[in-house]
Amino acid sequence: MRHLIASTISVLFMAVLLFVANAHRQYASQVIKVRVPSTFEVGDKTFPAGKYWFLQTAPHLLSLRDSQGHALANVLTGSVERGETRGPAKLDFYVAGDRHMLARVWQEHESLGHQVSVSKRATYLAKRRNTQIQATAEGSQP
Question: Cα separation of 14 and 44, whole Å?
């Protein structure tokens, strides 16, 4: 009886390890590296121009990382579909004057992207109707 319980626990443990490894591999492959040419905002934080990574860490959650891989912010997202079926990895920004607020994150060769949850500032600027959406950063996936 003891042997049966130990075998069952071992099999369950191995199944859990395989599931976790598969889930990690699925999200780890979804890294987007971009060079952002201007200062930009994500939520209530402002970041300088430079090289960044977006790493999908869970469904509807992206981690913004600097070029060294250090986590800077977590970004809640929803799904959005782009018009063309396949395209480059890129970022779309809401642009109002000299302010660039992250709007969407697109993965290379994917028709579905990540729509960034709108901050209070972005909502306010959108209501002013002088806000445009621009693709100002393109990148790649390793």
Answer: 42
